[in-house]
Amino acid sequence: MSEKNVLRKLLVSLKRKPALIAMFILLVAFIVYTFSLTNVSHTTSRINKANMGLAEFASMLLSVLSMVCFMNAYPRRKKTNYIMLGLSLALILIVILCDGMYIGRIAEALNDPKSQLDTTKETYILATRAMLNVHRVILIIGAALAVLVPWYGKLLRKINTNVNIEGNSEMAAIEIEGND
Questions:
Q1: Cα 172-173-177 angle, rounded to 5 deg
Q2: Pairwise CA distance, residues 4 & 94, whole Å
Q3: Measured CA distances, 18 to 74, 101, 156 (Å)
Q4: pLDDT tens column, 16-47
Q5: How far apart are CA 24 and CA 72, in angstroms?
């Protein structure tokens, strides 16, 4: 297959189901968090402030649940399920708040004069903070795309994905005669 044909097929599938774009962004956010889970766990065990483990657990669990709700918000060949979409957005908001709380706990630990944290040796702490900031930005983009699906869905439908076959332009109108 040529690259042009692959791109055309991708556009056709996105025209049919534009919510896949938002789902892909939410999946990227989940993968970013999952691949950094070792750093998050090490940070939790090293700093050990209130509710850090709970925030870590809630972020992981609610990320999965928000994607499940999002998949059910846009069922195939049915209208949008706004209850599931609202639930998915609420779960995404809770994950963003959990990330913010976790970043706050890291900031408390780093600014505490009694703390014996050495970020030159314990680089996972700063890596976790940076990843959580990136994770929140990706989640915000995914939530915005989830809300804007009807608008960019209309824009995608305007893209011409027809295949031009030689000889089609020369064909006259075909009359179909039926025997009654």
A1: 130
A2: 41
A3: 10, 33, 8
A4: 888 999 999 999 999 999 999 999 999 999 88
A5: 15
User: pTM, whole model, 2 decimals?
Assistant: 0.82
pLDDT tens per residue across span 112-158: 888 778 877 889 999 999 999 999 999 999 999 999 998 988 887 88
Under a CB-based contact definition with an 8 Å cutoff, are residues 28 and 81 in contact?
no
Reduce the secondary structure of 29-92 to three states and give it as a string: HHHHHHHCHHHHHHHHHHHCCCCHHHHHHHHHHHHHHHHHHHHHHCCCCCCCCHHHHHHHHHHH
Query: Which residue is listed with tokens 């599931």?
Result: 84
Triad 141, 142, 143: Cα angle to 5°: 90
SS3 179: coil
Which one-letter amino acid corresponds to residue 75?
Answer: P
Amino acid at 137: V
